[in-house]
Amino acid sequence: NKRIKIKELLATAAQGQQVTVMGWVRTFRNNQFVALNDGSTNNNLQVVIELGKYDDAFLKRITTSASLKVTGILVESLGKGQSVEVKAEEVEILGDSDAETYPLQPKKHSLEFLREKAHLRFRTNTFSSVFRVRHSLAFAVHKFFNDKGFFYLHTPIVTASDAEGAGEMFRVSTLPFDNPPRKEDGSVDFSEDFFGRATNLTVSGQLEGELGATALGQIYTFGPTFRAENSNTARHLAEFWMIEPEAAFYDLEDNAALAEEFIQYIIRYAMENNGDDLEFLRQRLLDEEKGKPQTERSELDLIQKLQFVVENKFERITYTEAIDILLQSNHYKKKKFQYDVKWGIDMQSEHERYLVEKHFKKPVIVTDYPKEIKAFYMRQNEDGKTVAAMDILAPGIGEIVGGSQREERYDKLVERMKEMHVPAEELWWYLDTRRFGTVPHAGFGLGFERMVQFVTGMGNIRDVIPFPRTPKNAEF
Ligand code: ATP
Ligand code: MG
Ligand code: MG
Ligand code: MG
User: Fold this and answer.
1) Is 429 helix (H, G, I), strand (E, B) or coil?
2) Strands 239-248 and 441-447
3) Of 203, 382, 402, 405, which has the most beta carbons under 10 Å away?
């Protein structure tokens, strides 16, 4: 198979050379000009078919989304927007596409429409760009941690523990739905279930990750996580991917520095490897903003925004400082926040976005949250009120990272579990890390889709994952 990808062809092939390309028809004009796309780039290759070379019956089959194999000579193009084109010597139709019933048109569709056609939206420039960028970011995740000496640890997808204690778990069971075995008190008897106990899809790999980190030193997980989020927001999915490094001998400061370096690294990687896709997405956003009044348009375009983030240090504040800033803001005084602000609240997305978008205008690392609103495993600070937590907030998104230094002191951890009604007997294996050679350690979770949203500028999280899972939506 001598096929060359269009991206490579445009970058390296010499004029006069014979090439074979395969792809899908985007448009076909004047029975002569095919715009061919093979997924390697949004730049279509123009294929020119000599008039009279093929009969009408054949030409009629060259419709949008039909797939072709073309062999021809690469020549200079006189058309605008392209330097070369292929003069076809042989055109083979690999697969027909019925123009009457093909659901997408060459015109621009709304993202909402394309969500209804999620099985075909890969074939649009926007989604091709988004998923190529997503690929690069995922690759960069592994590259970053590998180069830093972190080991990729695969934590289980089916678990018995609820790391976050937020009650957002999907049950996994092979018991019959209609008439499950029951205990004397009427509750379902999970001892009859496949694993002999109740199990769930994981909400986070952290607790298991800590087992790895307290032996291998530094590990990271990068896998699917599941939360039965019963709301339809633009930043929550029921199935999303999370990157969770966990590092022995790290304190909160090391953890924050790692997160910042990591985020800047993967953005830089995408900028270096997906320049044309990011340029396309930048233009897409500018077009989208054209309809808006000047005051509502972004100050920086997508690429300027990313450039700014990789070149500037993130802001650092404590939770207490964050609340003070909110309380002193005109926004608060004019009662523009929907949710109340006071020390102790779990900040809402409107608060987080105010801090990053209006106040600091850059990503912010917020540390030392009230212990009441954070999970049991975070390390208690000396003040008795706060824990060594750290969230990273990003413009346009809000929370993108949640992390902490972990409570490594056995007694304090057990005390905290009691206070929060976390069943210590079920987490005996977790407590063992504190009983046998405990060490200070820290880690964080970065929501991969929120990161992809940030880098691509896509407003809705459903548009950065190939197969979104949201309430009442799991078509395929
Ligand atoms: P949020 O406050 O936005 O609901 P969280 O505090 O519940 O997030 P964590 O438990 O801290 O989330 O999870 C770590 C990271 O995982 C978050 O910072 C976020 O980037 C991502 N994340 C959490 N829930 C979701 C979700 N339902 N869909 C996509 N990403 C998510
Ligand atoms: Mg949540
Ligand atoms: Mg949160
Ligand atoms: Mg969080």
Assistant:
1) helix
2) antiparallel
3) 405
Q: Do residues 118 and 467 touch, judged by C-beta distance below 8 A?
A: yes
230 in Cβ contact with 246 (< 8 Å): no
For residue 227, pLDDT over 70 is answered with yes
The answer to whether 271 and 295 are in contact (CB under 8 A) is no
Which residue is listed with tokens 């298991």?
Answer: 208
Specify the residue with its C-alpha closest to ligand 1, atom 24: 236
pLDDT of res. 291: 85
Does ligand 1 have an atom closer than 6 angstroms to the CB of 462? no
Report how far residue 356's alpha carbon sits from residue 208's, in angstroms, rounded to the nearest whole number.
32
SS (H, E, C) 258-279: HHHHHHHHHHHHHHHHCHHHHH
Residue-wise pLDDT tens digits, 117-172: 999 999 999 999 999 999 999 999 999 999 999 999 999 999 988 766 667 899 99
- DSSP codes of every residue in 48-107: EPPTTSS-HHHHTT--TT-EEEEEEEEEE--STT-SEEEEEEEEEEEE---TTT-S--SS
| Separation of alpha carbons 366 and 325, rounded Å | 12
> Which residues lie at CB < 5 A from ion ligand 3?
399
Q: What is the mean pLDDT of residues 370-377?
A: 96
Q: What is the residue whose two structure tokens read 């800590």?
A: 210
Confidence (pLDDT) at 371: 97
Tokens of 363: 């990503």
Domains, the chain, with CATH or none: 6-102 (2.40.50.140), 123-165+206-463 (3.30.930.10), 169-202 (no CATH)
Cα 392 to averaged position of ligand 4 atoms, centre (Å):
9
Query: What is the atom index within ligand 1 of the atom nearest the CA of 227?
Result: 27
The pairing of beta strand 158-159 with beta strand 364-370 = unpaired
Give the whole-angstrom CA distance, residue 312 versus residue 306.
10
Q: Which of 235, 364, 464, 465 to mutate to test the pocket of ligand 1 (most atoms within 8 A of CB)?
A: 235
Amino acid, single-letter form, for residue 467: F
Asked whether 242 lines ligand 1 (CB < 6 A), one says yes
Q: What single-letter amino acid sits at 394?
A: A
